[in-house]
Amino acid sequence: MKYILLLACAIGCGDDSTAIDAGPDAALLPGVRLRGGEGFTIQAITSDDYVIYSDPSSMWWAQSVGGGSAIPLVITGSDPHIRADGTVAFIWHGASPQRLGVWSAAAGYHHVSDFSATWVGASSRDGAHILFSDHVVGNTVDLVGANIDLSQSSTLVSRVDSYGCGVGLAFLSPSTAITAYCPAAGSPARLDLWNVANWTATNLRSDLSQPVWWSTNAAGTRVFTSLATGPGVVIEIGGNSTLIDTDVKRGVLTSNGDSAIYQNSTDLRRASVSAPAPTTLAINEVMNFWAIAPDESKVLFFGATNDLHLASAIAPGPSTLLGPVVTLSGDQFTADSSLALYFVFSAQTGEVSSLSAAGLGGAPRIIAGQGRNPRALSGTTIVYWDFHGGSSILGDLKRVDVKQTPLSAELLVSDVDPLTFLTSARDQIVYTSNVDPATAGLYVLALP
To answer: Under 8 Å CB-to-CB from 330, ≥6 apart: which residues?
Structure first.
């Protein structure tokens, strides 16, 4: 989450007056070309559908998928990273600690720190406020809150431990935020609630485990976390804490805040928040709680040998072994939550060998031998990038219903670059092509 000035300011950092009017072209490849040119790399997309991308000179740009002007942001230094949180993009770059800038369509680009910890940044749902890290010195860091235009900036906590404990920050609502941190190395973690109107704090707990973690309900009225002594608790904002279970490693609150689903030692459990009576869903298998399905009916977790399992998040029963996995990327479930999406590891080649899908109790199904970056559309239909393999860095964009028998993938675009992103409505996909200078550029393709 960093950006930088340098040459960028010579052409106008985040200044719309210098924007290049790229106007959409008639489609040279499938979809609409938003901007022609070679060497573009898509970095992220915001919730209001601005694509953040870079060019070969390391200049970063913002471009609405609806067309219009390409907006110059910043020329990045080495090792850039980006986090798009809602309508706000955090960009870090340079040697660690990194320089940080933020951009939104409403407020433009602002350089915010020369010494920031990568990935530590968050924005409010309305995009009006931000939290970020600053003044990294050794293993300590400051946490800062501000308006999106950097007015009313306030250092919330100073010189807190960023190594053994880690730090966390998030907005619960447009008017409230939370920070989690250890005041010093080895101390229990604190969880503080902040009123963003004047950045005043209320301490919620000072006895949390480290590294610190938490999960909130959709309304931002409850926080699930664990104490330094092991028990998991749900903290009611403005109320009391409810003990959920002993030895809670990590977990999630359901979106309505009524239940907690979590790892207890090596078991997977579920408990009601109002009257906790833990139910064991899977026994002696869980080493790393990973992801929950969109409808909160299923959970993915890694076992002791880094094997991936799928289990019910509602009722006890045997988990489904999906197999050894190198990585998970893109979406981990289909839109209807019926199937998990994952990559199988090949013992023969030592590489990711196939994009696969499986449901509870079902046999895994290979979707594409070189499939990558699955994105859920609707039902059980996904779009994915099908790698050509070998020394190529190209692949084809394809769409398929992963429940269809036999499988029949639809070719959308041939020979595109690896990084692709869906719009917030999941009805358009943004991609780049660099095969032919005449057709190279940034494209958006509707997915009816």
So the answer is: 341, 372, 373, 374, 375, 384
CB atoms within 10 A of CB 118: 20
Asked if residue 14 has pLDDT above 90, the reply is no
Instruction: Tell me the residue ranges of DSSP E strands in 307-347.
Output: 307-312, 320-324, 340-345
> How many whole angstroms from its chain centre is CA 133?
18
Least confident range of 11-25, 344-358, 397-411, 427-441: 11-25
Amino acid at 58: S
Rounded to two decimals, what is the model's pTM?
A: 0.90
How many Cα neighbours within 13 Å face the side chain of 195? 6
Cα–Cα distances in angstroms (integers) from residue 190 to residues 23, 154, 214, 360, 403, in the given order: 50, 19, 12, 38, 46
Q: Are 9 and 18 in contact (CB under 8 A)?
A: no
Residue 270 CA to residue 202 CA, distance in Å, equals 29
Nearest to 433 by CA among 94, 154, 40: 40
Cβ partners under 8 Å of residue 126, min gap 6:
174
